[in-house]
Design goal:
The complex is a heterodimer.
Chain A lengths: L4 H8 L5 H14 L18 E6 L8 E7 L2 E7 L12 H4 L1 H5 L9 E3 L8 E3 L2 H17 L6 E5 L3 H14 L4 E3 L5 H12 L5 E2 L6 E5 L10 H11 L3 E3 L2 E3 L3 E5 L5 H5 L2 E3 L6 H14 L5 H7 L4 H8 L4 H8 L3 H13 L3 E5 L1 H4 L4 H14 L9 E2 L39 H7 L6 E5 L3 H4 L3 H9 L6 E6 L11 E4 L8 E3 L9 E5 L12 H10 L5 H4 L4 H8 L4 H6 L1 H8 L1 E3 L10 H4 L13 H5 L21 E7 L13 H6 L5 E4 H6 L7 E5 L4 E9 L6 E5 L56 E6 L1
Parallel strand pairs in A: 6-7, 6-16, 9-12, 9-14, 12-13, 16-17, 17-18, 22-26, 23-25
Antiparallel strand pairs in A: 1-2, 2-3, 4-5, 4-18, 8-15, 10-11, 19-20, 20-21, 22-27, 24-25, 24-27
Helix pairs in contact in A: 1-2, 6-20, 7-16, 10-12, 10-13, 10-14, 10-16, 13-14
Chain B lengths: L1 H4 L12 E6 L8 H10 L9 E9 L2 E9 L18 E3 L5 E3 L9 H5 L6 E3 L4 E3 L5 H5 L5 H5 L5 E5 L6 H8 L2 E2 L11 E4 L12 E2 L10
Parallel strand pairs in B: 1-10
Antiparallel strand pairs in B: 1-8, 2-3, 2-11, 4-5, 6-7, 9-10
The chains are: A alpha/beta, B alpha+beta.
């Protein structure tokens, strides 16, 4: 896969113009060649700035970026043109990473609590004091024979996950947990059950048909920038050989009219949590009308077509219409279209997974791709292509202690923990925690029923010592005993290998664009230093520098080592095998990574755990029989923010700093509610005061509130307070609304299979003030 | 205009005329251009040189969304540079309307005359600033920051005097519109597939909670 900039222009242009393009840039060379990416010029001196290639982490898409530096400071973060996934595109969040580094309210020194917990009284301490205190506490735990009471909940990038797990295991605690934004877990479990991989990567650039369920790649997706640029490509005319391919059709099922739905060919407002029913009804039509790919089903699925037909008999389009509100005639037509347009792929994320039936619905959607033979074909529903990283030898053994926190016995199939059960388990005593450490995790803001979490963190009996590591003073940090300043993504060494859209896996390096500001320390450095202070075998397992750790991680990737290893990555920012061509149907070689080696329509694992082994639909109890004055609460991501991580980025918060509750304007007028009116939105858990905004693009039975703003801590920018600082523009902060956090009214519900939080299964009422 | 578009046949150096083309079939309304510009040009809070308006139109369930990114039009007949009392604002050979920050006295006459409201006064420096298509980047051979970063590759920038440039090619094969053509300012930001309601400040529901310029 050699993808030059010129090729990019060639492939992305509108059909008829493809021939003129190559020339166009040659011609520019005559006058002046305008190039994109990779360099930055000073506005005052006209000189080029030093460019450091790295990998972004202001959201989880992990695009290639460049840090442009001068005089020891970071001037700008821009896109890396040659990066195989993001191809020189960078979203608002990535560029505003600069705000995160130079946030005037950033934590730059370790602080220790002096008042009561949650009182907000702090004393600045030195790192030496931090290490002495933590080493003593950890050594005590170990010598008392309770190492499992050290619980570390860390961020989700691969290097951080690996090194925190290594630290915990070496220490003797199995409790290395990962904070994951709610809902994603269900999708991963569903995909693992169906085909043994975490996610799908729709090969959108080559597809003819995109069937989107509860997903909004135009605004938020875990691979958004790489994904959306290929969708726009597919939505224009493309060239294949000497042929011009027609543009791909895009159909969206979503309760809200998102940017994706608003630009799609068809948008269907669907009742929340009923995506699975529509997918099953479509599968019913495809099987019933013999539109299926018999070859794939008979060779690569573990369930025969005739049995599947029988199973799907009851899931008729008429049945789905009653449940979802999508007309049976539309379901039938779309099913025929989906089966007839090849290659095609589905896209599904949060809107499907964040329900208690998330796993079932995801499995029903995956089934659509299997029966139409779109699995891992060019332009279809592809397996992720990624590298895995090694660990330096010796690798600490996994402690032989059963951990309820890691594998709750109530959730036998939740292979990726049940993050939202952590606090309830601490509360009910099924998990003992003596030292709780979090890294870049803000449960008080981001988890459902956040008021409950606040109480637990405040209780020194339940959590005797709480260490919060973060680059910002968060709502959660307020309840810590010690807050440690973390280096931001622009100041750390890490490796990534996100799923490749060009279908050739690659390695991407995150390297410091500048030295960590103040006394902030990267998580890798912190754990290595702490390990040196601990008794026992810790030193043996952490006998390396951060650089040696990265070198050990890429030890197994021979191509990269041949190209120059870490030195190559430092220069380019990424590496992939340039001679490799995209390969499809890779399952043909070794089969799928499932017990049967096939795409499991019928899952024995599910059967063993007492669930329906076939893709099915279960009604969500709360959302059943929803009354006239009741609504379901939809919590969503806006296009310029990342969960709870970006409210201190002024350029982003300036664009979206408020989050009115969006409602269908016709419903509002029927209920006598006015635009911009303040109301109380009440759930069984709690209530919030929020302003209403009436729009047309939303299901009449839904209220949608975004969950990126409405902080009570997180620095002054997040709280809309203008102030004087070194960054002069902060005194010009002009907005007054800081938004409302919807999480306190979200009731905590969990998918019994996947263990992911069902964030959207909350029934709410409106109370006028 | 027609005369200018003729390619030179004697091989002599032609004049460059830069222009921006916004292909709204590809725009995803992500605001990357707005933030790229803020970062590149140190635009203070409260001011934008680039803004993507997002509207929703239609009645449930037949609703759609439309976007309209706006920049300085760098008009061929700019009104703004006529009444600058100190000649701070001028037009470059390649068509870009500039403000000389050393001459500007911040009187805001130019702001008053701009029909697109794309000029602003920098509250920290008390001078008028505007989108100049990243002239400093163009001079170094780089594309404007917004164009470089555009997620959907909806922004196409180049020389419209060059018949082979991507922008010329696209403009010659697609119908394009400009904002307020009746004023005869000859704007040089062109739109493909723009929604008439998005170009009209009175129509559609503005989805964003804030909006700054009303460049129509």
């Amino acid at each position: 896969m050699k993808l030059s900039r010129r090729d990019l222009f060639k492939y992305t242009a509108m059909g008829g113009l493809l021939l003129g393009l190559e020339k166009s840039f040659d011609h520019m060379a005559q006058a002046m060649e305008l190039v994109e990416g990779g360099s930055e010029v000073s506005r005052t001196t006209g000189k080029f700035l030093k460019a450091v290639p790295s990998t972004c982490l202001n959201c989880y898409a992990r695009c290639g970026n460049f840090g442009f530096t001068a005089y020891g400071g970071l001037i700008k973060i821009g896109p890396n043109t040659d990066h195989p996934n993001s191809r020189g595109r960078m979203c608002a969040k990535g560029q505003a990473g600069l705000n995160k580094v130079y946030d005037p309210d950033r934590l730059l020194a370790p602080i220790k609590r002096v008042g009561k917990r949650g009182e907000g009284k702090w004393k600045k301490i030195t790192w030496e004091e931090v290490y002495v205190e933590l080493a003593q506490r950890l050594n005590d735990l170990k010598s008392n024979g309770r190492p499992e009471e050290f619980v570390f909940q860390s961020d989700r990038d691969i290097t951080t996950q690996d090194i925190t797990r290594r630290f915990c295991h070496a220490f003797g605690s199995p409790n290395a947990l990962v904070n994951h934004p709610v809902g994603g877990w269900n999708k991963r479990v569903a995909q693992q059950l169906s085909w043994g991989a975490d996610y799908e990567v729709p090969d959108v650039a080559n597809t003819q048909y995109l069937l989107i369920f509860g997903s909004n790649p135009y605004e938020a997706h875990y691979l958004r920038t790489s994904f959306v640029q290929r969708i726009t490509e597919a939505r224009g005319l493309r060239k294949e050989g000497s042929l011009i391919k027609p543009k791909a059709k895009m159909v969206v099922f979503d309760v809200r009219l998102t940017q994706t739905g608003g630009r799609a060919d068809e948008w269907y407002p669907i009742r929340p949590g009923t995506d699975g029913a529509v997918a099953l009804a479509m599968a019913h039509v495809i099987m019933d009308e013999n539109l299926y790919d018999n070859d794939f089903i008979s060779h690569w699925c573990n369930y025969s077509a005739s049995k599947l037909k029988h199973h799907l008999k009851g899931f008729t389009p008429e049945w789905a219409e009653k449940i979802s509100g999508v007309k049976a005639a539309d379901i039938k037509r779309l099913a025929r279209e989906f089966a007839g347009s090849k290659p095609a792929s589905t896209v599904s994320t949060g809107g499907v997974g964040k329900h208690v039936n998330g796993v079932d619905s995801e499995r029903a959607i995956a089934l659509l791709n299997a029966i139409t033979g779109n699995v891992d074909v060019k332009g279809g529903y592809c397996l992720p292509r990624q590298y895995t990283f090694d660990q330096p030898k010796p690798v600490p053994p996994v402690p032989n202690i059963k951990s309820e926190l890691l594998h709750p016995s109530k959730f036998p199939l939740a292979m990726y923990e049940v993050p939202s059960r952590v606090f309830p388990m601490i509360k009910d005593g099924s998990a003992n925690v003596s030292l709780f450490m979090t890294y870049q995790y803000n449960p008080i803001y981001s988890r459902a029923e956040s008021g409950f979490i606040q109480q637990i963190l405040k209780d020194e009996e339940l959590i005797p010592y709480f260490v919060c590591i973060d680059s910002v003073y968060t709502e959660t940090a307020k309840y810590a005993d010690m807050v440690l300043p973390a280096a931001t993504f622009a100041e750390r060494w890490e490796l990534e290998s996100p799923p490749a859209f060009e279908m050739v896996p690659f390695v991407s390096l995150r390297q410091p664009l500048i030295k960590p500001l103040g006394e902030s320390v990267s998580i890798t450095n912190f754990l290595i230093t702490l390990a040196q202070r601990l008794d026992g075998e810790m030193k043996k397992y952490f006998d390396f520098t951060p650089r040696q750790y990265l070198e050990a991680q890429i030890e197994g990737i021979s191509g990269l080592k041949k190209a120059g290893g870490l030195e190559y990555l430092k220069k380019k920012g990424f590496w992939y095998d340039e001679s490799a061509k995209p390969k499809y149907r890779i399952y043909r070689k070794k089969g799928f990574n499932t017990p049967s080696g096939k795409f499991e329509i019928y899952s024995k694992k599910l059967e063993k755990a007492g669930f329906n082994p076939l893709p099915t639909y279960t009604m969500i109890p709360v959302l059943e029989n929803i009354q006239e004055e009741e609504f379901s609460l939809i919590v969503y991501q806006t296009r310029v923010h990342t969960h709870d991580r970006t409210a201190n980025c002024m350029w982003l918060t300036e664009i979206i700093h408020d989050n009115p509750a969006f409602m269908n304007a016709d419903t509002m007028s029927r209920l006598g509610l006015r635009d911009s009116e303040d109301v109380m939105i009440v759930s069984k858990v709690s209530s919030i005061k929020i302003k209403l905004k009436g729009i047309q693009g939303i299901h009449p039975k839904c209220i949608a509130i975004s969950d990126n703003v409405g902080h009570t801590e997180f620095g002054r920018i997040a709280r809309a307070i203008p102030f004087e600082s070194e960054i002069k523009t902060t005194k010009l902060l002009w907005w007054e609304e800081k938004g409302v956090n919807p999480k306190p009214i979200v009731s905590l519900k969990i998918d019994p299979i996947g263990g992911g939080e069902a964030l959207m299964d909350t029934k709410v009422w409106i109370r006028k003030i | 205009m027609a005369k200018e578009l003729e390619p030179s046949r004697d091989g002599r150096k032609r004049k460059i005329r830069y222009a921006m083309l916004v292909d709204l079939r590809r725009c995803v309304g992500c605001q990357s251009c707005s933030v790229a510009c803020k970062s590149e040009n140190e635009v203070p809070l409260g001011k934008f040189r680039t803004w993507v308006k997002v509207i929703e139109k239609g009645r449930y369930p037949d609703v759609s969304r439309h976007f309209l990114p706006s920049f300085c039009n760098n008009c061929a007949k700019p009104i703004c540079n006529r009444n600058c009392p100190v000649k701070a604002t001028y037009v470059r050979d390649d068509g870009i309307v500039m403000v000389n920050m050393h001459r500007c006295i911040g009187c805001m006459y130019c702001m008053a005359s701009c029909p697109y409201d794309v000029r602003y006064i920098n509250p920290l420096r008390k001078i008028v600033q505007k989108c100049d298509w990243c002239a400093h980047r163009l001079d170094a051979g780089l594309l404007p920051a917004c164009v470089e970063t555009c997620l959907g590759r909806a922004l196409i920038f180049g020389d419209i005097n060059d018949p082979n440039s991507e922008i010329s090619q696209l403009m010659s094969t697609n119908p394009v519109v400009t904002l307020k053509p009746a004023l005869d300012t000859q704007p040089h930001v062109f739109y493909i597939g723009a929604d008439a309601d998005a170009m009209d400040p009175t129509k559609g529901i503005d989805i964003d909670h804030v909006h700054f310029h009303e460049p129509y």
